[in-house]
Specification:
Two copies of one chain form a homodimer.
Chain A lengths: L15 H11 L3 E2 L8 E2 L1 H20 L3 E2 L5 E3 H4 L3 H7 L4 E6 L2 E9 L4 H11 L8 E10 L13 E11 L2 H21 L6 E4 L11 E8 L5 E11 L1 H6 L2 E3 L5 E3 L1 E8 L1 H10 L16 E5 L7 H12 L5 E3 L6 H10 L4 E5 L1 H6 L1 E6 L5 E5 L3 H26 L1 E3 L3 H10 L3 E6 L3 H11 L2 E6 L18 E6 L3
Parallel strand pairs in A: 3-7, 15-16, 15-17, 20-21
Antiparallel strand pairs in A: 1-2, 4-6, 5-6, 7-8, 8-14, 9-10, 9-22, 10-11, 11-14, 12-13, 17-18, 18-19, 21-23, 22-23
Helix pairs in contact in A: 2-6
Chain lengths: 476, 476
């Protein structure tokens, strides 16, 4: 009873995938319609995306990013201009063939990503070095015709932001690529309390059309990796395919150098799978739509609701706070708010009113303390900061405790089978080894981390001289 | 030279349509790609949409609205469930027929509006009176396959918000319909400085599937009307078509009553056409991405740039302010900022620095004053408020001066031909008269205003007893 007050959800240990599905449904993050493979972001889920969007957008703008909006539909001819790109995306796009009652002369795909459109736009919009750099971003949805879908992790439509930049030089483009990866990494740690590994994708795993793809990789509670954001350097490949040129100061025509970078609603999946527990969601305060829920006990008794409202009124300028006045039982309310991951619960009954105090319960640790009503205005914002910090540290400790080193093939296979988590291992750099490892173990190269170590001299797979240390893992 | 400092734009008197096109292009609001009928919202245009979105969203939330996100694509079968609705929209939707490499079993349309999806969702999500009301909204883009397109006014894709609500009773639904129309009207007046007429659409002009459609109608500088926002009461028509039912307190099954309401990027068109002049855009401060531009004069002289930066630093907490440090001439900068509609320009040169003053120029009136640098922190926010208020009053005066009364058919036709604007006239309520008036004069019924007057006893068209006073006008 104590730990399972609401309709039971599957425990994480028993079946992590089912636990995940139970949580997203029972915490009311998503819903369904008759559109197969698509999901509804319900108020609790969308409010998290709004908090992500506002905080990330303000970090973008501090680096000079400007928002724009480009068309939803892309003519087939545009998609085909860059060879690697079309091969990567054509198999998974949705095609519009009719507009109104007429068949279109050229079919249009629903954007799976907008590199081609930005190139087409930049080709018209950029003429001189004075027009550079362009550091544009858009918030929108994209469609990819996935066969298997899972809420937030893989669905036929998802919300994201896609930044697309154009620069005068290769150096500037590389600098922006890394800068945005750092923005993502800092955001994940500081706002989502999700620690990430920063690194470069292998040739095999890089984005269709990119010279280099950088990634942030997070470790979920079950030891699987989640690619949580990527930043791509395109060099001048797209510019050459689309003729995006500018005249430099010497009046010579040059190709621009481009980047793109994006994160998606998948980040909500990361929050769930990094912080959640057997009672449901556990939300870091900075992405919690409701940070504090006041639960009146014996709320019909004189003074209780008034006291609850007064607490909410005194905190509402600094904290997202609500009072649960529904006619459900306190026990049910507790369980429901735990399921929804609300960081702090304040309980107040007739005796508390008399004593001028509340019971304060942390969602992340379950810790209960008694606080004087007078001190709430300073104590609650501080406690939210503490929870935010503690959740990051807890996630980091879990990640570190589930990061293993494999120097030999035996160690590698043993770890993959028995200890879910990241595996650091040396790699010769050959795609053949990468593919063999994936085929034999299901683990993929997550990234070549920026912070390299020399664990051994030889590749964990083929025994030839090693070139890079790689994070491997089974991934979502 | 004085009034035409930048590359000339067509004057409003000469050709209003061309003036409009010149302004949206030369003030950098929009751009184009190779996707026919679609436009790019460039940073200056998108920033206006962001300001609209943030301020409107916060007004929505004050009335209890929650944001959600529903799928982009709608199965044909869903669209067809409500007969009037499918007839209204089927001719103008884009159809997805292929997902990835396969043809779909059922084609999907790109949402032209989401009533059908919300019904499908509510049918699954609502079971009891405890689930009501649902007051949901989404910010997204929609696609309608228009033949003729004009930036912001009519394009194949536009950004908007669509609110969709479900209520236990007819009264509650009607109340919400009117409430949201009032939110729109207040927003247009207080934020966009665009006065509007509130009223009900005729049977002929109402939304496909609605019981009643309410509208806000604004008058553009050229005397044409622009429908600027609508709010629809659906009664239980959609609920019956989609089976959206709840059990009431007596445990009886009841149909919900629904509403929907929306405004679009068309509002940006209204801002341009209500406030603009022959020098370009004139932006109301509350939707101006940059509210104040500081222009250093002889900026290479010692102390000038420092003084400009100090002014910006002292104001940036309360005002959206920038310093134009480009190497363009002051005259060119002035003209460029006028084109972009920036409400206030502050000029500061070496002598001003010495005197501790700036020249302050209002975009809306051209008025120049000299202000002490010390008083800017109070004077500039006040002046922005004054400009906001004056722009609304000016627009209201223009609207009132171009609103005419026609009691007879001769007066009506004479006014339509010679005095562009709103025409108030009496109407019998018959669609036949409405259609005849449109055919003969090009004027349509804009709305039956909430504030009714009795101008005459008989219909301006047929002479039969009049039922309603109507605003007529030629419209965008």
């Amino acid at each position: 009873m104590a730990d399972k007050k609401v309709e039971a959800i599957t425990s994480m240990e028993e079946d992590f995938a089912q636990w995940y599905t139970d949580v997203v449904i029972k915490s009311d993050l998503i819903g369904y319609t008759s559109v197969k493979g698509f999901m509804v972001l319900k108020p609790a889920g969308y409010a998290m995306w709004e908090l992500i969007q506002h905080q990330l957008d303000s970090r973008f703008k501090q680096t000079g990013v400007e928002n724009v909006y480009l068309p939803l539909l892309i003519p087939e001819g545009l998609l085909q201009k860059e060879k690697d790109h079309v091969e990567g995306f054509a198999p998974e796009v949705a095609w519009v063939t009719h507009g109104g009652l007429n068949e279109l002369q050229e079919r249009l795909c629903v954007r799976p990503t907008s590199e081609t459109l930005f190139c087409d736009f930049y080709q018209k919009d950029i003429t001189s070095y004075r027009d550079l750099p362009k550091v544009y971003n858009q918030w929108c949805s994209v469609v990819r015709w996935e066969k298997e879908t899972r809420p937030f992790l893989r669905s036929r439509e998802f919300l994201w932001q896609e930044g697309h930049t154009a620069h005068a030089t290769a150096e500037e483009a590389e600098e922006r690529t890394i800068q945005m990866l750092n923005v993502y990494a800092d955001f994940c740690e500081e706002v989502l309390a999700v620690p990430v590994i920063k690194g470069q994708k292998s040739e095999k795993e890089k984005f269709a059309g990119a010279v280099a793809t950088y990634t942030i990789e997070a470790l979920m509670h079950d030891g699987k990796a989640l690619q949580s954001g990527t930043s791509h350097n395109f060099g001048d490949g797209f510019a050459r395919a689309f003729g995006v040129q500018y005249t430099d100061k010497e009046n010579k025509l040059q190709y621009v150098h481009q980047t793109s970078w994006g994160v998606t609603t998948r980040l909500i999946g990361a929050i769930i799978m990094v912080h959640g527990d057997d009672n449901g969601l556990v939300l870091p305060p900075r992405v919690a739509p409701t940070q504090v829920m006041v639960v009146p006990i014996q709320q019909k008794k004189a003074g209780v609701l008034e006291a609850a409202d007064a607490i909410a009124a005194s905190l509402e300028k600094t904290v997202r706070i609500k009072v649960d006045k529904t006619d459900k039982s306190p026990g049910f309310k507790f369980a429901e708010q735990e399921m929804r991951g609300i960081p702090i619960r304040l309980e107040i009954g007739p005796r508390d009113v008399e004593a001028g105090q509340v019971i304060c319960v942390r969602r992340d640790t379950g810790e209960k303390t008694t606080l004087s009503i007078n001190e709430l205005e300073t104590a609650i914002p501080q406690l939210l900061e503490t929870i935010q910090k503690d959740m990051l540290e807890k996630a980091r400790a879990h990640r570190d405790a589930h990061t293993y080193v494999a120097k030999t093939w035996d160690e590698f296979t043993d770890t993959v089978e028995n200890r879910p988590g990241f595996i650091k291992a040396m790699w010769c750099g050959e795609t053949a080894c990468e593919e063999k490892i994936k085929e034999l173990t299901g683990a993929t190269t997550r990234c070549m981390p920026f912070e390299q170590e020399t664990l051994a001299e030889t590749c964990v797979c083929c025994g030839k001289p090693a070139k890079k240390m790689v994070y491997f893992g089974r991934a979502y």
